Amino acid sequence: MKLKKTDYYKLLVRSVVVVSTISEKGISNAAPFSFSSPLSFNPPLYGFSCSQEHHTWRNIKENEEFVVNIVGKDLGPLMHVLEQMLPYEVSEIEKAGLTEERSKKVSPPRIKEAIAWIECKLESFKEAGDHMWIVGSVLEVDVKDEFWSEVIDVEKASPLCHISGTFFATEMKMKKYERAMK
Ligand SMILES: Cc1cc2nc3c(=O)[nH]c(=O)nc-3n(C[C@H](O)[C@H](O)[C@H](O)COP(=O)(O)O)c2cc1C
Predict the structure, then answer these.
(1) What whole-number distance in Å separates Cα of residue 96 and Cα of residue 92?
(2) Does residue 182 have a pLDDT over 70?
(3) Which of 38, 132, 161, 165 has the fewest CB within 10 Å, making it most exposed?
(4) pTM
(5) Residue 83 CB–ligand 1 contact under 6 Å
(6) Residue 51's CB: how many other CB atoms inside 10 A?
(7) What is the chain's Cα-based Rg?
(8) Ligand 1 atom 7: residue of nearest CA
(9) What percent of the chain has pLDDT over 90?
């Protein structure tokens, strides 16, 4: 079937992360993102695409820090709360009934209920069509012990993935395949 070219992203199943940031006045903000990817092993760089209208981008421009909270399917029912356009100084984390925890290297908080956390410092940004591609240097990474087994244990952690609109994907099976490069 031929698709509209603007539907290309609906073929790609993408991890959902919730990016937390902090305003000038110290009020936290959080929003889900799925246009995101690791970019480099060394130095470790992480990138995501953010509309320039979003408070997330405004906060990152101001204090150059963000936390990538990797979330599980338990946060699926909260997506509609976390993605609300709340007034600038209202925290989506609190609205969603989630818990803020102090980060280790940056000022925006972590979300306690997440599976893992990647703390980042803004490295660069570039306009990418109707989004801003934001690149962060990874400063600190933590994962809950129960969800780590050499890599993320997808069967235990059940990471939340997005496809488009209200379509998400949740259950995953761990498989190992032989690789040419070990
Ligand atoms: C599952 C999911 C994935 C999303 N992915 C993106 C994304 O990759 N880029 C983006 O700009 N907005 C994305 N959004 C929309 C933002 O989360 C939403 O517009 C939010 O209100 C932005 O919040 P902010 O203004 O507090 O930054 C996504 C929303 C959901 C529910």
Answers:
(1) 6
(2) no
(3) 165
(4) 0.97
(5) yes
(6) 13
(7) 16
(8) 33
(9) 92
Q: Are 135 and 46 in contact (CB under 8 A)?
A: yes
CA angle 53, 59, 62 (to 5 degrees): 115
Q: Where do the structural domains in the chain lie, given as residue ranges?
A: 14-169
Q: What is the pLDDT of residues 100-142, one digit of tens each?
A: 999 999 999 999 999 999 999 999 999 999 999 999 999 999 9
Q: Which two tokens stand for residue 144?
A: 């809950």
33 lines ligand 1 (CB under 6 A): yes
**DSSP letters along the chain, please?**
----GGGGGGG--EE-EEEEEE-TTS-EEEEEE-SEEEEETTTTEEEEEE-TTSHHHHHHHHH-EEEEEE-BGGGGGGHHHHTS---TTS-HHHHTT--EE--SSSSSPEETTSSEEEEEEEEEEEEETTEEEEEEEEEEEEE-GGGEESEE-HHHH-B-EEEETTEEE----------S--
CA–centroid distance, residue 180 to ligand 1 (Å): 37
Q: Which fold has domain 14-169?
A: Pnp Oxidase; Chain A (2.30.110)
* Dihedral, CA of residue 33, residue 86, residue 73 and residue 104, to nearest 10: 70
Ligand 1, atom 14, lies closest to the CA of 33
